[in-house]
Prior knowledge:
By secondary structure, the protein is an alpha/beta fold. It folds into two domains: 4-53 and 357-381, Urease, subunit C, domain 1, CATH 2.30.40.10; 55-342, Metal-dependent hydrolases (TIM Barrel). Helix content is 26%, strand content 30%. It is built from ten helices and 21 strands. The protein has helices at residues 74-85, 101-117, 153-159, 176-185, 199-208, 229-236, 253-262, 313-322, 328-335, 337-342, and strands at residues 4-11, 16-25, 28-34, 43-54, 56-61, 63-64, 67-68, 89-97, 124-125, 128-131, 164-169, 189-192, 210-213, 241-245, 268-271, 283-287, 290-295, 298-301, 360-363, 369-374, 377-381. α5 packs across α6. The protein is globular and about 65 Å long. The active site is at residue 273.
Amino acid sequence: MKKRVFIGKVILKDRILQKGMVEIEEDKISYVGERKEVDKDSEVFYLEDFFISPGFIDIHIHGSYGRDFLNSSFNDMEEISYFLASKGVTSCLPTLATSSLPEMKKAIYEIEKYISSNVIKGTKFIGIHLEGPFLNPDYKGAQREDAILKPDLNSLNELLSPHVKLITLAPELEGALDLISYLSKKRVIISAGHTSALSQDVERAISLGLSHVTHLFNGMRPLHHREPGIIGVALVDDRLSVEIIADGYHLSDHILKLVTKIKPRDKVVLITDAIMAAGLSNGEYSLAGQRVLVRDGKATLESGSLAGSTLTMNKAIKNMVEKEIVNLVDAVYMASLSPAKVIGMDGRKGSLEVSKDADLTVLDESFNVKLTMVEGHIIYNAL
């Protein structure tokens, strides 16, 4: 396979190379730097008016384009993966909302089959995120209360597989600390979410392996000046990374600015928390069997509770930059290298560096995705 060369404005970890170049050999990056002479037999993409960015990584996404990972066939997952690639996402963790154990086990099995096929027709699935079922019903949000379980090792083991990389649970529940300790030894990332945890609960959980917080501020005990709880600890303790949803509904601009001013950027992770309605119009959809209404891009249950989002990752970056929350370099970092670090894959993914996987996306000035490459394969091309 001949080399592929991309010439344009290259987004690095700390700056943008205005006259940059990225060279790809097979499935790896072989050169990143200032523009130089290219081999005559190389395939060259002259993209001086475009940004060449590391591919985005979404570690919290329930579905899109009319499909939900809880009940997706192999073909459904191909459709989701292609849609995500069209929005610049090169890797993701399919995320399962809380449902019955049989439903979750079946979904895990189907996703594992897709991962094991090694098919690359879109975004690569690099693991599974279980959002539940060991959650606090008081902060269930859009999670099904009838499927929420008390922390139990037997139930946990029914769900565990080598592909489960991240689990969201409520650390204050009786038995949760035992699960955290157990999961930590198995090198599963543990995230606090849908939780009423007090600060002391969080501190104990951190000591046993808790390292992440699911959609900060949403689905958790509010911040209070005398009992800061999960939010207060998450903001000031950099042993914890945090997820934020920059869709204009889940968090105000002031809160986005607060989080990004307090936390270092490698501890802030942009997620979409997208559901099956992402990429489609307003209407009625579902999440784990619950009716979801989408109006003006806002997804809610009939109760009014937010039910995930219709956000795409390129739009999340656009919102962060255009609302002057952070600059483009930092926004891309939070959508690529930060999530790679959370899941321990920053040695291979998350930035444009020599020997890393050839995952990249090309953006125009309006943050529209023009091309996406996944491990050396051009999946989406709208140039």
